[in-house]
Queue: 2 jobs
Job 1
Amino acid sequence: MITNSTPLESYSPASKQLSPAYFSRLIAPGALLLLWQIAVWQGWLDQRLFSSPIQVAQTLWQLARSGELGEHLLTSLWRAGAGLALGLVLGVALALVAGLSRQGENAVDALLQMGRTLPHLALVPLFILWFGIGEAPKIGLVTLGCIFPIYLNLFSGIRGVDRKILEVAQTLGLSRSEQILHIILPGALPSFLVGLRYALSIAWLSLVVGEQINASSGIGYLAMTARDYMRTDIIMSCLLVYALLGLATDALVRHAERRLLAWRPSVLKS
């Protein structure tokens, strides 16, 4: 716990030693992998339909050594990054319009509230008709999935800023733009980061579906091709890659959260 005598600048979460509680988080996944492997060894699971962890690891190593995994991974990262960037720009812009004025809320909020109830993954046939079978529908699917969590969380964060603080700012003579820059946006940052974490998870989910739209590369394409040859080891390897990508990107946002929100007591005590 950080006391008043500890300077904030000297605190760094990265400098803390890994606690036993951190390693205890690995017990459940490790036990699951062990049980999975034992079930395959004992014949409780058919290895042709449910590849063992050892076989999945060997397949991943072979794909990495051949360069095939890296090629497909770069393509998937580009698609996810492009879709997420577009979703961020649109989601943030719409949240600012709706969050900073009643007129803006009346203009865009109802449309977005209706749009978020639509299952965006079910729009694949329409995306193909609208954008063809190239990269556009794949990136567009990721973009559409990312807009709503960014918008909803940032909008909530903007509207959740303490009005008493804004009244004090007005008393001190801060202009509207200064209030937005120095009070409203920093106050909404925690909500925005929560929305970003949700958007990242939805981005990978959307990409799994998007890369099955007449794709010739990408992790989803690799899994779809493996399905035709009943290569469950490759399919499960691809699913593992998606899971690791999701975990890695979430960890990056959490790391940024610790640095950007170091002023919050909840972060200082973690």
Job 2
Amino acid sequence: MTINIDQSWKNHLNPEFEKPYFKDLTEFVKIEYQNHTCFPKGSDIFNAFNRCTFNDVKVVIIGQDPYHGEGQANGLCFSVSDGIKHPPSLINIFKEMEHDLGIPYPKSGNLMPWADQGVLLLNATLTVRAHEAGSHQKKGWEQFTDVVIKTISAEKTNVVFLLWGGYAKKKKKLIDTSKHIVLESGHPSPLSANRGYWFGNKHFSKTNSQLEQVGSMVIDWQL
């Protein structure tokens, strides 16, 4: 696995790349990609960091695992490549965005325009074997991405963290809530959304309201 990650992140994360757990993880990922179909493609593994530099991070959305279907994962949590059918969670994200902001439901599920404005779309696990959800969990990725969250918390101020669902909410303990904003809700998956834990959270307008209050440019959520 090549660590093709933006220099702004390397400045903060270089010590991690030298640790035994990360070297083991690198070897594991390399062997998996050699012997199985895995997602996202190798050049997109660190896409979230390359589309959103450390200095630009204003908002963090935390996902769990990349999509494991053909052509879906592009290295940004909840995002799919252009032309790919929107997965159920993404449909619900867009429906809430539509209700919250009154902007039209987008054709593309590619969230790169959000990343380019300072939204870090971070999966806790950055790779997965095709059609095997969770297959690369507990191999070291979570240790690495926890350090990413802690580093953002320590080195930056006034970042809005969006924690959607039980898994993401567990990351709250990594965040200094005295200098960052944490918004929590249910997960956008149909199971959670249909029980009333997702729709109406207004996280898109609330995020922009928080950014405005600290003098940051708001996010144009329209795709």
